[in-house]
């Protein structure tokens, strides 16, 4: 395996040789068992490299990362430690019709109380600017940083849900649609209130929280629909 | 080089939907949603940690992985969705690792010079030393000289093209091809089975 073609075998394997070179090398391979054997070994190396398994870190690094990006703002849950596959499995399905209904009712109550508070007590003068996008404390939603990011996410999730909607039973669809209507109404009310008082931190947070609820609802509904398509 | 795992559980079965879901999570994370970013971390931590472990070593892999995800959080605003999130993250990870290699390079240099390093030169006698027995394929990758190891991992494991690798490492594509060939030749002896 010391002829001058040996050093071109990887390029041949990767399809990087010019047509003339490739033809010449293939002619050489016909009469050179050593180069053929080397080429076969190189193929096995490449295949072995592509089959390498990725393994997660031995310890969960998320708590440390969460501290660094938010000063501990995104605490790890107790079940975060340990096996990643198990963690994913635990996340897979966690959505029921009663939960859907509860989400809607909660939103209705929250929405009404927020509007009452704002209208009745006056606006909170604290302004919320673009800098308010850091992870919120203790799982609370971030302050409102503009419609665009949420609108994009919601549009995509609605599209995904529409694709798999047939996998949901009619009762679930009915509850889902009802709750989406409630959420949309809450969003509209929050936006209207915010338009009248754009500096209100309370309204900013409320709108962010309401949009986040819609995203969560759509995401979980999509999860159920997606699971039903398999 | 596609992403592994899924940000939104729905979509694990369909690569297009996975990309869509991760784009959604990345958008949310860019708005400050820590939960969305955690989902992205869960989906990609194994791949990123493995990359760091292979490119540098196990001792620095945890630290590098943290650094990569913190950097990703800071740079999420630059992610526009033209490529899959996993692709964007992997590129960022490679840049962080290569940037850090100067500070931890003193540890790595021993692999290029000491007797435990695999000589990637093509003319080396191919009979392994007695100390080589028992080294598996992953260990053997870790014992390649630094440049050969980086090129091999980026090309054969991660799927980068020579032109991209040349840009990342500051070399010419011909050098990347040559290093890759030498690495493959050296690794033949450590194929399993």
Structure report:
The complex is a heterodimer of chains A (230) and B (193). By secondary structure, chain A is mainly alpha-helical. Chain A has three domains: 6-50, no CATH class; 57-91, no CATH class; 92-228, no CATH class. Chain A has nine helices and no strands. Chain A has helices at residues 9-13, 19-30, 33-50, 62-70, 84-91, 97-121, 147-164, 170-196, 201-228. The longest helix of chain A has 28 residues, at 201-228. The model of chain A is unreliable at 72-100 and 103-144 (pLDDT under 50). Chain B is mainly alpha-helical and 193 residues long. Chain B is built from nine helices and no strands. Chain B has helices at 15-30, 34-55, 58-75, 85-100, 105-113, 137-142, 146-157, 162-169, 173-187. In chain B, α2 (34-55) runs antiparallel to α3, α2 crosses α4 (85-100) and α8 crosses α9 (173-187). The interface between A and B is large, with 67 and 55 residues.
Largest sheet of chain A: none
Biggest interface, chains and residues, is: A-B, 67 and 55 residues
Number of helices of chain B: 9
* SSE run of chain A: HHHHHHHHH
CATH topology of the largest domain in chain B: Rna Polymerase Sigma Factor, Chain: A
Shape of chain B: elongated
CATH-level-2 architecture of the largest domain in chain B: Orthogonal Bundle
Q: Which parts of chain B are unreliable, with pLDDT below 50 for 5 consecutive residues or more? A: 1-13, 110-116, 120-132
Which structural class best describes the helix and strand composition of chain B?
mainly alpha
Distance, first to last CA of chain A: 52 Å
Distance between the termini of chain B: 26 Å
Biggest sheet overview of chain B: none
- The percent of residues in helical segments of chain B reads 55-70%
Number of beta-strand segments of chain A: 0
Helix content percent band of chain A: 55-70%
Q: Detail the poorly predicted runs of chain A.
A: 72-100, 103-144
Radius of gyration of chain A: 28 Å
Domain count of chain A, please report it: 3
